[in-house]
Amino acid sequence: MASLESYLFISLILFCLGLYAVMTRRNGVAVLMGIELILNAANLNLVAFNRFGGLAEHLPGQVFALFVIVMAASEAAVALAIIINLYKTFATVNVDEAHEMKW
Amino acid sequence: MGDITFSVLAVLVIVTAFWVVTSRNLVHAAVALMGTLFGVAGLYVFLYADFMAAVQIIIYVGGITVLIIFGVMLTQRIGDKMLVQTTMPNRAFAAIVVAALFVALASLIFKTPWHRGDLPEMDGTVSIIGNALLTRYLLHFEVAGVLLLLALLGAAYLARRAHG
């Protein structure tokens, strides 16, 4: 039987990889993938604590994770709209080359 | 049997997440991300979260990765398939920060005396989550609806073709 620590450890690895992607990737879409990894790590933690905390009444961890998924979906849509706009304006999606707010 | 499945899922999640982070081809990274999200959905099943697993597959695997692949295709020229990362000193700095954070958090995870409990047996979580969403978390539910509407309008506004 897998314990709470094993889930937390998997989620820790996911979080560290996502953070590394956010810090090293130049392409905006790849940065977005790193953010999705971080959000998944957080969700895995929430659901794991819900089970091993024995919170059966309203399942608060799972409902919280559901709201995080809602937020992640809207965040991905807006971020991709911004990236496509960036590409139309600067002809690049590298986040370090786009350092002007207005063109 | 359960332990073997859990190990397979854990390995799947970690290996594909490594691939997402290190792949130099953006389309490969997107497909690997799909594998990671599938693996996390499998782990949700082990955590007695059947509804969350279904939502994870429908929204993440069916929605967000498709959106990301669209983003890749709309912003790449045919020629440049290679994905450039940042310069070497920057990458080394990031690796040091991430490794330090990893060690700190791992020691925290294995040293903390966590509260021990477990969920009782139940036939599915859908009715519990549905009731909770429309009673205790009603306000949060409505705010999430407004957030989705705003994201829809905002994304459509940002991505439209500019006039004049």
Secondary structure layout:
The complex is a heterodimer of chains A (103) and B (164).
Chain A: H1 4-24, H2 28-52, H3 60-90
Helix pairs in contact in A: 1-2, 2-3
Chain B: H1 2-22, H2 26-46, H3 50-74, H4 88-111, H5 126-134, H6 138-159
Helix pairs in contact in B: 1-2, 2-3
Give the termini separation of chain B. Answer: 63 Å
Low-confidence stretches of chain B: none
Gyration radius from CA atoms of chain B, angstroms: 20 Å
Biggest sheet character of chain A: none
Mass-distribution shape of chain B: globular
> What is the N-to-C order of secondary-structure elements of chain A (H for helix, E for strand)?
HHH
Can you put this structure into words, describing what you see?
The complex is a heterodimer of chains A (103) and B (164). By secondary structure, chain A is mostly helical. Chain A has one domain (4-90): Orthogonal Bundle (Helix Hairpins). Chain A is built from three helices and no strands. Chain A has helices at 4-24, 28-52, 60-90. The longest helix of chain A has 31 residues, at 60-90. The model of chain A has no long low-confidence stretch (mean pLDDT 89). Chain B is an all-alpha fold and 164 residues long. In chain B, helix 1 packs antiparallel against helix 2 (26-46) and helix 2 packs antiparallel against helix 3. Chains A and B meet through helix 1, helix 2 and helix 3 of A and helix 1, helix 2, helix 3, helix 4 and helix 5 of B.
